[in-house]
Write a structure and sequence with these properties.
heterodimer, A: mainly alpha, 13 helices, 0% strand, B: mainly alpha, ABC transporter involved in vitamin B12 uptake, BtuC, two-stranded antiparallel sheet
Chain lengths: 310, 354
């Protein structure tokens, strides 16, 4: 019996592990969107993070340099987006798409020399406690530091937005850039910062994929997770805690799909693979149907350019 | 001293000049990237942009690649002009290919003049059906069309994969993931002996002419333009917003579906896993680079088609990774968007006081 309970614990832990990149990217994008900027380049920033992390790990041999390097790469690539949308006042949607196309191309170009190289083992925390409590041990212990950070992030993000002064400024900029500007807030600076932060989180999400989740470089390995992360932000109605729930649902779909294949359920594998995308659509429909609720929770200036005449 | 001043009105001359500027800047940035990668920049650019189209065969390949790009971009321009962000053309292309391929397979052992028109029509309808999903969800359930249309791209590719591996795979095909070859009557005729360019190009040209007519000569085109500028104004004028959204998605899906037909009944002649090298995504860039103008889109599709060919040639002759093509495509869009700044602002030179 104990064995069974631990098996359940392992499944839950694997669902959580597959939710990590979604949580990281969504929480990053949520801050960006809360400041009124719609960055559709999540997929591109994640894939850049994935290759940068993996490449730095292989070249330098240092995991710390690799993880922070991936975040820095996310920041650098999102700087392009920030400069275009904030300084040159370009359209957010088109710029984000360009970022994704560019990111996928650049990552494949850099990654050409890293295909087939095995990854390194990433250290896990609390491994000695792994067999102490049935069911809970595999869930709580023996994961990478990024894993714990990801599950703390929604709470930190929520606290930041609701309880801190800077969080209030971010929300003010997103809901009414004009009045924020009149209050003496530098709207452009705040938005720059939020975009770069989003880039760092997406970079980290990508590094988690290529260094911890499946420690190797595979071309296009983000496989649409960036887009699902974007959908999760809508799903959460811009509330970080709900991102946690959404990410667990999608993590669950990914894991259940593996297990159903393993048990030999006679459903075509392509259908199971398509499930997360189909569920995303269904969930979006259910959430968005109530247009009043969406309108109330969406940052009012989302996706609209702001330019202060001087 | 240089001062940045806002223009009273967006400059029309600059509107059509910036795409050229963007291409020029992309070439410079591309040269720098080649240099960083350790290639001779000028030689690399020559292999990328000149060698591929230097002969008759290359030119035919250029038109072959430009055809789907142009067709899809024309369709997308209807969506983008009216502020509808359909970014799932790749999925609509794939689904169009699936439906038309399915119909073509029904006639695999038959010949007849009637087969090709039915196959083409099936592809257009397939694309339309697939595009109607994000359109209906947007209009009646307020769902974000960007995410829905994008998710459907992944779904369509998995459906295609399922079909060519499973029920539609060629019974005499030794389990290769591909269907039977279509009968000759289901193939778009080749235009020249020995070249791959096929009659699909006429579909693209027809789309260009029809869209020009609709944009500039009909009430519908005017309505789309107004909705693109301001949804509020459109509502105030009493335009049927929902109908328009569905209509532009259907047009755009139909065009993408036709591009799918062109791919499978032209060069390929059967269904297999990869019917399109991301034409649906690249066409978004083509639409912007062409300024959503039918004639502009023709030129833009030719320019962007070179990046496909150039990537192949540069890989063969200089071992430059083929993804460089995608990098160039992303850069073109970056530079285009950036140079749009010149549309609304101008630099004023003010003499410094001594």
């Amino acid at each position: 019996m104990i064995v069974d309970i631990n098996f359940v614990g392992l499944i839950i832990a694997s669902i959580m592990a597959s939710a990590v990149p979604l949580i990281l990217a969504s929480c990053g994008e949520l801050i960006t969107e809360r400041s009124g900027v719609l960055n559709l380049g999540v997929e591109g920033m994640m894939i850049i993070g994935a290759i940068s992390g993996f490449a730095l790990m292989t070249v330098t041999g240092s995991l710390i340099i690799a993880v922070f390097g991936a975040m820095l790469a996310g920041v650098l690539i999102s700087t392009i987006f920030a400069f275009l949308t904030q300084t040159l006042i370009t359209n957010h949607v088109a710029t984000g798409l360009a970022l994704t196309i560019f990111g996928i191309g650049i990552s494949a170009m850099i990654g050409k020399n890293f295909v087939g190289i095995p990854g390194k083992e990433f250290p896990v925390l609390f491994e000695s406690l792994k067999d102490t409590i049935p069911l809970l041990s595999p869930i709580l212990f023996g994961h990478s530091i990024v894993f714990y950070f990801a599950f703390a992030l929604p709470f930190i993000t929520s606290y930041f937005l609701k309880q801190t002064k800077i969080g209030l400024i971010v929300r003010a900029v997103g809901d009414s850039p004009e009045s924020a500007s009149n209050q003496g807030i530098n709207v452009r600076l705040v938005r720059y910062a939020c975009i770069l932060y989003g880039g760092a989180m997406c970079g980290l999400a990508g590094a988690y994929l290529s260094m911890i989740y499946t420690p190797q470089w595979i071309e296009n390995m983000t496989g649409g997770r960036g887009w699902i992360a974007l959908a999760l932000v809508v799903f959460s109605t811009w509330n970080p805690i709900k991102i946690l729930i959404g990410a667990m649902i999608f993590g669950g779909l990914t894991i259940i799909q593996f297990h159903m294949q393993a048990i030999g359920v006679r459903i075509p594998v392509q259908f199971l693979t398509a499930l997360p995308y189909i569920v995303t659509i269904i969930v979006l429909v259910v959430i968005s149907r109530d247009s009043r609720k969406i309108r109330l929770s969406t940052p009012s200036s989302l996706g609209k350019s702001f330019h202060k005449d001087n | 001293m240089i001062k940045i001043v806002k223009r009273d009105q967006p400059s029309k001359a600059i509107f059509f000049f910036t795409p050229v500027l963007a291409i020029f800047l992309t070439l410079i940035a591309g040269g720098i990237i080649f240099y960083i990668l350790g290639f001779k920049p000028f030689e690399a650019l020559k292999f990328f942009f000149i060698v591929p189209i230097a002969d008759k065969y290359g030119f035919s390949e250029l038109l072959l690649k430009a055809t789907p790009l142009c067709l899809i971009a024309i369709g997308l321009s209807f969506c983008f002009k009216s502020n509808n962000w359909n970014i799932g053309a790749e999925g609509q292309l794939t689904f169009g290919a699936i439906v038309s391929g399915g119909v073509a397979l029904l006639f695999y052992d038959q010949e007849g003049f009637y087969i090709l028109p039915i196959v083409i029509l099936a592809g257009a309808i397939g694309g339309m059906i697939y595009a109607s999903i994000p359109a209906i969800l947007k209009t009646y359930f307020n769902t974000n069309e960007i995410l829905v249309s994008l998710m459907l791209v992944y779904v369509s590719k998995l459906i295609l994969d399922y079909l060519v591996v499973g029920p539609w795979s060629n019974p005499e095909g030794f389990n290769f993931p591909e269907t039977r070859q279509f009968s000759d009557s289901a193939r778009l005729p080749l235009l020249f002996e020995g070249l791959r360019i096929h009659a699909g190009i006429f579909l693209a040209l027809a789309a260009v002419i029809i869209s020009w007519f609709v944009f500039y000569k009909t009430y519908l085109g005017f309505q789309m333009k107004v909705s693109g500028f301001s949804l509020k104004t459109a509502k105030y004028a009493g335009y049927k917003g929902k109908k328009m959204i569905i209509l532009v998605f259907l047009i755009s899906g139909g065009c993408a579906g036709l591009a799918g037909v062109g791919e499978i009944t032209g060069p390929i002649g059967q269904l297999h896993r990869e019917v399109s090298p991301d034409y649906g995504f690249t066409a978004i860039i083509v639409a912007f680079l062409g300024r959503l103008h039918p004639v502009g889109i023709i030129f833009a599709s030719l320019v962007v088609a070179i990046t496909y060919l150039g990537a192949e040639t540069a890989q063969i002759f200089m071992q430059i990774p083929k993804y460089t093509g995608q990098v160039f495509q992303g850069m073109i869009l970056f530079f285009l968007l950036a140079s749009d700044y010149l549309l609304f602002f101008k630099f004023k030179f003010i003499g410094t006081k001594k």
